[in-house]
Write a structure and sequence with these properties.
Elements: E1 13-14, H1 25-28, H2 34-59, H3 73-82, E2 89-91, H4 97-102, H5 107-114, H6 138-153, E3 159-164, H7 171-182, E4 187-193, E5 196-197, E6 200-201, H8 214-217, E7 221-226, H9 230-247, E8 251-256, H10 275-282, H11 286-296, H12 302-325, H13 333-336, H14 344-354, H15 368-378
Parallel strand pairs: 1-7, 2-3, 3-4, 4-8, 7-8
Antiparallel strand pairs: 5-6
Bound molecules: thiamine diphosphate and magnesium ion.
Length: 389
Amino acid sequence: MPRRTVYEAKVEFVQILDEDGGFDAKLGKGLISDEEVVALYEHMVTCRELDEIAFKLQRSGRMGTFPQNKGQEAAAIGAAHALTKGTDWLVPCYRENAALFMHGLPMHYILLHWMGDERGNQIPDGLYMTPQAIPIGTQMLHAVGLAWAAKYRGEDRIACTFFGDGATSEGDCHEALNFAANLDLPVVFVCQNNGWAISVPAKIQCSAPTIAQRGLAYGMECVQCDGNDIFAMVKVVRDAAELARRSHRPTFIEAVTYRLGDHTTADDARRYRDSAEVEMWKKRDPLIRLRKYLVDRNQWDDEKERSLQADAKEQVAAAVKRAEEIAAPSTTDMFDFLYAQLPDQLRIQRATLRTASLGQDPTQLEGGIEASRQQDIEETVSERPVTKP
Ligand SMILES: Cc1ncc(C[n+]2csc(CCOP(=O)(O)OP(=O)(O)O)c2C)c(N)n1
Ligand SMILES: [Mg+2]
């Protein structure tokens, strides 16, 4: 029996603007207009400001926890720019705030969510985005479902989902890729390979040379790009979006980037990361790179930078004020909006919560569980107005 190669593949790496300011004029020609580059840079700076402020809010006890996006702005913003706002689905995990804002989500929604108010996840009508997914990888399946529905209805809509390097070790990820490729679904999978899944380095999540090639195994297009280069991001996502719209084919994109901050405010990355690695990536900061591009082309100067920084501070301060002005939701919401009829065990918890002493057993209170049950019935879910932030 002769031996022959039945399959051979290559994975392309795309970079257009390198960290020294070198620009690939051929690949980058006509990709983003000068005005758009300025707008994208402004958006990146504003989102970086939000990151800094959210960190401080958490440290001063005004927010539960927050996952900073610092260092990864080009990936989310570049992808959002290449998609059609108000048409295409954005299906994020928890680090893509910047993309959601670009597609119209008011900034205070994200703050509300991390302040523990679920109304921050109540996406306003007319926006095509799903709430931030905290369980790793689950949103990839949601994106596949949304794309399938769009194709079934004959809509000109595609879905773009974001996930991390760590998510590619989850079964959900592989089911989503398999489903999308086999059913010819218009999905753009954007893996933000930021080097780490909390304290686990990406290289031990995947022993193949690239994460991108995981897409090959499912028979879909795949590409790796410099995720800190906004031009490369726009190029690869635009190509993938065109393929999805034209041929209903999915693409797997690996955006190579780096998380400059901690995993979340509940983490201290200094305990597991080498500072030399962090320093190296600080030099590849997507904001520094884009500012240099604009300055080199006389599109930017110190005066514009000062004014942008002031505007960003003002915008973020207004979002914080708005989020903090919204009255906290009722603690009992976590019971009231999950079940039509609360199981007894949870009914006891709900009643205990109301007693002065936490943990007190309501069955020992005057009237016992029956009394607390009666109180629940009086305070029915239907009477409670659902307010929007
Ligand atoms: C299903 C599930 N398992 C575990 C966790 C806990 N967890 C939160 S973030 C995280 C790491 C995710 O890493 P990655 O996908 O690379 O995303 P990144 O945070 O780096 O953006 C883990 C394991 C979770 N949220 N969901
Ligand atoms: Mg990661």
